[in-house]
Amino acid sequence: MKTLLTSTALVAALALPAAAQDYTPDPNATPGGMITVTYKDDVATLDPAIGYDWQNWSMIKSLFDGLMDYVPGTTELRPGLAESYEISDDGKTFTFTLRPGVKFHNGREMTAEDVKYSLDRVTTPATQSPGAGFFASIAGFDAISDGSADTLSGVEVVEPATVRITLSRPDATFLHVMALNFASIVPKEAVDEYGSDFGKHPVGTGAFKLDEWTIGQRLVFAKNEDFWREGVPYLDGVTFEVGQEPIVALLRLQQGEVDVPGDGIPPAKFQEVMGDPAQAARVVEGGQLHTGYITLNVGIAPLDKLEVREAINMAINKERITQIINGRAVPATQPLPPSMPGYTEGYDGYAYDPEGAKAKLAEAGLADGFTTELYVMNTDPNPRIAQAIQQDLKAIGVTAEIRSLAQANVIEAGGAGQAPMIWSGGMAWIADFPDPSNFYGPILGCAGAGEGGWNWSKFCDEGIDAMATEADSMTDPSAPERLKMWSDVYMKVMEEAPWVPVFNEQRYTMKSARMGGDDSLYVDPVSIPINYDYVYVTE
């Protein structure tokens, strides 16, 4: 057995930096104070088994915890609710010892029974979790998925503070999966009490707890005085104001009324902000494992024809679209971003070729084009990008009617398979963890293609799925043969063209002059967009 404790190197087996230590409080931090964060749209849910968008991800992460966690501002694993864990020599059995004395927001102490309940809940079809597929390597996943079992056979309560998880195959990403929001531990009694409304009445173990939610106006988080990690959070609370236009939010930040504009810097104001030294000093820039893309629903005619999907790929002028966001991106050729292991160097993708696209449509028997719908999130610059896509498609004879909706409505339509095409901006994929598998399972694999899933193209190729499973069954995530296999997976995906990869975007945000904490916390690669547990105010 490989034994790993809180103070030891956690991730040697994952080929990650071997210096994951528990958190040391920031000596410059002054506890106390509230901050104000704005968003244009209201929040759909705070249920960790359901929520999966840019807006609620960091909120959920501050309300809940999983067995594993990350060093703030990094993708470096460390224990969370697990105090320590052991891994069997064959890489298939993980035994977690829980931290003593951890309490839910309702005051009850967390136990191994809660861990089992939470993993059963996220994987049962009735929950309709978009993250269920992440847990496919746990023994019993297939049985709970097809309804022949109502519990995961691979999750066993050994004693109140010990849980053993057995996998059906080695999984190079498993510890990362246990750090996802989907793996958050929830109390059964709270879920039973609120039912489908649990997402409006969340109860977790996190650094903050929900104090108020006035639908359409604001959410207020209050500091969890019983939080298990000593010294944090620093803030007394966070107020999230919703229904706030991004340009108004920026103006209010300039006036000292807002601390973080959650929707980022409005593209129409980006050059103005960067040209003003006082404002530019408040801008935080960070790299991200990101791809913005158009999904093509293979279950809706005529997008079910490969030639049509190829034509749409060839019709999109990606260089022009990057200029809409002030050049803060590079054109994409494939689902993986260039900095992700497994990226295929030298692959040029589908070249911009309107005449070639017309020929493809003619080959599909659609020389006169067709009419379809393009769904888009209604926050700038996404409607403008959708208009550019619309113009590109019009040039090859395709009429795309734009459906500009709130984020939650676009996600709902995508999950239900109702949207022929979706521009993913504002919801575009940013890696949950730094491994090529994360760009496949939830958004291109068969597991994500079901009702409520984030595979909005509804693309499912069992042969490619089998390749992906084989790649993840290797115990060394950085093995050259594993990364080559992932490269092959994405090249086969591109042959089927369920997406138009458009660009890989750099990340920018702003903070008020009084906000403290390392800049990495404001472009946190895991607590997207902000790690509220560790930021603080200086006045």
Structure description:
- Residues 1-20 form the signal peptide.
- This is Glutathione-binding protein GsiB.
- Belongs to the bacterial solute-binding protein 5 family.
- Part of the ABC transporter complex GsiABCD involved in glutathione import. Binds glutathione.
- By secondary structure, the chain is α+β, with helices and mostly antiparallel strands.
- 25% of the residues lie in helices and 20% in strands.
- The strands form six sheets. Strands 14, 15, 16, 17, 18, 19 and 20 form a seven-stranded mixed β-sheet that branches.
- A hairpin with a 3-residue loop joins β9 and β10 (218-223).
Major β-sheet annotation: 7 strands, mixed
* CATH fold node name of the largest domain: Dipeptide-binding Protein, domain 3
Query: From the helix content, strand content and strand pairing, which structural class follows?
Result: alpha+beta
> Beta-strand percentage?
15-25%
Our Rg estimate from Cα atoms comes to 23 Å
Could you give the topology of this structure?
Blueprint: E1 2-5, E2 34-39, H1 54-63, E3 68-70, E4 77-79, E5 82-87, E6 93-98, H2 112-123, H3 141-145, E7 155-159, E8 162-166, H4 174-177, H5 188-194, E9 208-214, E10 218-223, E11 237-242, H6 246-254, E12 260-261, H7 270-274, H8 277-280, E13 283-286, E14 290-296, H9 306-315, H10 318-324, E15 329-331, H11 354-363, E16 370-377, H12 382-394, E17 398-405, H13 407-416, E18 421-423, E19 429-430, H14 462-472, H15 480-496, E20 499-505, E21 507-510, E22 515-516, E23 536-537
Helix pairs in contact: 9-11, 14-15
